[in-house]
Specification:
This protein has 368 residues and is of the alpha+beta class. The chain has helices at 15-26, 35-45, 155-160, 188-206, 228-237, 258-261, 280-292, 309-314, 341-356; strands at residues 51-54, 60-64, 71-77, 82-88, 93-99, 111-116, 119-126, 147-149, 168-171, 176-178, 182-185, 214-220, 241-249, 271-274, 298-301, 321-329, 337-340. It is built from 9 helices and 17 strands. Strand 6 and strand 7 (119-126) form a beta hairpin. The mean pLDDT is 95.
């Protein structure tokens, strides 16, 4: 028997685009305060598109062929998890509440940036030394006992720095490449998606592809608190088709149950989803594009919802034909989120090839 030759992976991401990706990930973009990241994203994608717009809450949209009647969206969300200052003690310590799905268990000993009108204030999540907990019942981190220390000893001193209730707090961990195989950083959920859809625009421009429809490249805000940015922009654009990209869980690490979470792995390709919001025939188009172009892919089943902006687009405007392409990710909602370099390339390729296979006016309905 002849052994099948393994196909060599051809990178899509360039050195220049990777430099943008690193800056984009390192820039904070917390829910409700995404504008700096959105400006950076628009500056990167403008040369590859025809026009752009930004809505009242900060969702950024770059458009190719804007005069076309038939509209296709490719979308990711821009916001990251963060914290809000909620209470300042008389001793100058700061208690917080969540802004999105922040994980209180990873907070102790993390360094953070408090965003104020006077600029960034450095702080950290304090935690009692192990020596002082000896013989006591261990208390797990909760919102009631984690706190920020910015080096002040009074409430007045904290306020003089510009810190007040409502200031947003982000982790300061930065982007890195691990073992020349993984990208690691905070907020890969889901600025990796914003990066990938921008790369699709770059490839279309560089390969001189002319689309028969208007392509709306959407970087939405406020996904982490309920898909709100996608909900707003879907009603504004009124697309015919929407292809969403987000992250999903790599389930190969300890303490994850494959029976309930599925069997997915970084490095094995993009993930196509099966869910009520995912339109069956559009999903088949994605799979055909993957198979025709030798793009490895995985499958995932969701229950009632995908939990992504797919749901917001699918159920808008009397129903939009929508599908989801996910990027496998380890350690979601931590400061060390990990994605495989080849998966990033292959998500970009899958979106790109899927767009090239869409026919204007095609009837996606299962019953005609």
């Amino acid at each position: 028997m002849t052994k099948k030759k393994e196909q060599k992976h051809i990178p899509v991401v360039t050195k220049k685009s990777l430099e943008f990706f690193e800056k984009y990930i390192n820039n904070p973009s917390p829910t409700g305060f995404e504008w700096e990241g959105q400006r950076m994203w628009l500056d990167y994608i403008k040369p590859y598109t025809d026009e752009y717009m930004v809505d009242n809450y900060g969702t950024a949209v770059a458009v190719i062929n804007p005069k076309a009647e038939f509209k296709v969206v490719i979308e990711a969300h821009a916001d990251e998890i963060s914290w809000f200052v909620n209470y300042i003690t008389k001793d100058g310590l700061i208690y917080v509440i969540k802004n999105g799905g922040s994980d209180h268990q990873i907070a102790p000993s993390k360094r953070v940036n408090i965003h104020t009108d006077k600029g960034i204030v450095k702080a950290l999540f304090g935690w009692p030394a192990i020596h002082t907990r000896s013989g006591e019942k261990e208390e797990a981190p909760t919102l009631k006992n984690i706190f920020l220390d910015c080096g002040c000893t009074t409430k007045e001193e904290v306020e003089e720095l510009g810190i007040h209730v409502g200031c947003v707090v982000t982790y300061e961990d930065e982007f890195m490449v691990l073992n020349d195989r993984y990208y690691v950083g905070r907020a890969l959920d889901n600025r990796a998606g914003g990066f990938m859809i921008a790369e699709v625009a770059r490839l279309l421009k560089e390969n001189k592809k002319k689309l028969p429809f208007g392509l709306y490249i959407v970087n939405s805000v406020q996904e982490e608190i309920g898909l709100r940015g996608a909900e707003m922009i879907a009603h504004r654009i009124k697309p015919n088709i929407a292809i969403i990209t987000d992250v999903t869980h790599d389930t190969q690490t300890p303490m994850i149950n494959k029976i309930t979470q599925g069997d997915l792995a970084c490095g094995k390709g993009p993930v196509v989803s099966y869910a009520p919001a995912v339109q069956t025939n559009l999903n088949k188009l994605l799979i055909k594009a993957a198979e025709a172009n030798n793009i490895p892919f995985q499958r995932q089943a969701s229950s009632r919802s995908t939990g992504t902006d797919t749901d917001a687009f699918a159920y808008s405007n009397d129903g939009v034909v929508s599908a989801l392409i996910s990027l496998p990710l380890r350690y979601m909602h931590t400061t060390v989120e990990m994605i495989h370099k080849e998966d990033v390339d292959n998500v970009i390729r899958l979106i790109y090839e899927s767009l090239l296979s869409i026919e204007v006016g095609h009837d996606f309905r299962s019953i005609k």
